[in-house]
Specification:
By secondary structure, the protein is an alpha/beta fold. It has a domain at 3-121 and 180-201: TIM Barrel (Alpha-Beta Barrel), CATH 3.20.20.380. Helix content is 40%, strand content 18%. It is built from 7 helices and 8 strands; from the N terminus they run βαβαβαβαβαβαβαβ. The protein has an 8-stranded parallel beta sheet, covered by helices on one side. It comes from Levilactobacillus acidifarinae DSM 19394 = JCM 15949. GO terms for molecular function: copper ion binding. This is Copper homeostasis protein cutC homolog. Pfam families: CutC.
Amino acid sequence: MRLIEPLLENYGPLLAATEAGAKRVALADNLAVGGTTVSKGVMGEAIRYAHEHQMSLDLVIAPRGGNTPYDDVEIKIMEADLLEAQQLGADGVILGALDANHRIDREALRPLVAAAGGMTMTFSTDWDAIRPQDRGGAIDWLATQGFERVLSAGDPADRLADWTATKRLTDSTGLTLVPADVAAADVAQVADALKVNFFLGTNSLDF
């Protein structure tokens, strides 16, 4: 069974997601700039609503749009948001952090991983900015830290080839590749080529 997890902007689209039969949704604000963390109030109401309708809810944790690296204050903001999400009962979180050399920012991520204890962790599409020669070490580290999924929109030059290379890495460590922003018409082809059944789509309600 193929599952498309819609990445919804704020609280409003949750009703439509329920009516469309969503079993898992992701939530962010400001999708035009890549997605930022929703407010505490939105977190609480969205988690309550999702659980009342037998849906799992993932939250994007990002203090601003744009590229990483994050500074110390931004990491503290993310840590506070993660603790809030955990307390409110979020099922999972989507986050990432790279350093200025486009490598995993391990120092930044360690306190965030600790704050996310008990929630499913998905590494964000920051993955796509990591150089191919650095990805093996990156995936090994993510696996040791308890990440379960890697989100990737793929290299625009050849998305399928890039996803295939990433999937070899995720398979070797027990993580799951989640292709992002796949058009509904292309889901079956990508699923068959990669042998994946889980996708994340921006505001997609095609289940």
